[in-house]
Write a structure and sequence with these properties.
The protein is α/β, with parallel strands linked by helices and about 260 residues long. The chain has helices spanning about 20-25, 45-55, 70-80, 100-110, 145, 175-185, 215-225, 230-260; strands at about 5-10, 35-40, 60-65, 85-90, 95, 115-125, 130, 140, 160, 190-205.
Length: about 260
């Protein structure tokens, strides 16, 4: 039997998108999965939508946190509840391509990788194709490669829980929580291996936390200097790397948005 894949999805006020997110899982060509939807006290109908899916499919679990605690707490709760050999993540406004799990599990099994990632593509709020990822593809990423260089998105990640200890991040760094999570995985001495196919879809929503370059920059500096505790000269070096690469990424995104509007 195929190994179980756990997909953890923090949910908060995404009633416009969460059904599409869930459907992208139920339509996977790989069928042995569990979907863990953790609602962070949404004030819209997000939880009701999640619960309605859970009532129809035993592979789907929907739970609601007692208090509004943020996406990180919701993700940590999902990790704690996950039972799969493989673990991956999705945000409640993003989607997977139909063969995402199948391709990535086969890749992990064939090469016995502990961690893998794929490319992603951007979609508009209405779900239309916006553009390819503005993150350059790398076939292999180690801990040092990741410093100052967020080289993959958490919505593309897959972890073999039998080979890696999955960290429960606690730092209050809203715009860099995913990055800290990735660093803690690779700091265990494993590398992440890439699949050069866009198998996840990131919904670009202007004004969202992940689109704030200056906010991301401030939190990334905190990660390098206070979380990773790098000497000031090393933190400065890797932060400079981030700024250079970040400007390039922003230019690519800007061109995609302008082209779409045109």
């Amino acid at each position: 039997m195929d190994a179980l894949v756990s997909i953890v999805v923090p949910v908060y006020n995404t009633e416009k998108y969460v059904s599409e997110t869930i459907n992208s899982i139920t339509r996977q060509s790989y069928s042995n999965w569990e979907l863990i939807l953790v609602d962070d006290c949404s004030t819209d109908h997000s939880f009701e939508i999640c619960n309605s899916f859970a009532q129809k499919d035993s592979r789907i679990k929907a739970l609601r946190l007692a208090n509004n605690s943020g996406a990180l707490a919701a993700r940590n709760k999902g990790i704690e509840l996950s039972k799969g050999k493989y673990l991956c993540f999705l945000d409640s406004d993003d989607t997977f391509e139909p063969n995402k799990l199948e391709i990535q599990v086969d890749f992990m099994k064939k090469f016995e990788h502990a961690v893998s990632f794929t490319m992603f593509q951007r979609i508009t709020e209405s779900g239309e194709f916006l553009g390819k990822s503005n993150v350059p593809f790398n076939t292999r990423i180690g801990y040092k490669d990741l410093l100052g260089n967020p080289a993959f998105s958490i919505i593309t990640l897959m972890i073999d829980k039998e080979k890696v200890t999955v960290p429960l991040v606690q730092e209050d760094l809203v715009k860099a929580e995913d990055y800290v999570f990735h660093l803690r995985i690779l700091k265990q001495g494993v590398d992440a291996f890439g699949i050069n196919q866009p198998l996840s879809n990131y919904r670009y929503r202007p004004g969202s936390q992940s689109t704030s370059f200056f906010g991301n920059s401030a939190d990334l500096w905190k990660v390098l200097s206070k979380v990773e505790k790098l000497p000031i000269h090393m933190a400065s070096f890797y932060f400079g790397r981030y700024l250079v690469k970040g400007i390039g990424k922003r230019l690519t995104l800007f061109k995609q948005v302008i082209s779409k509007k045109g």
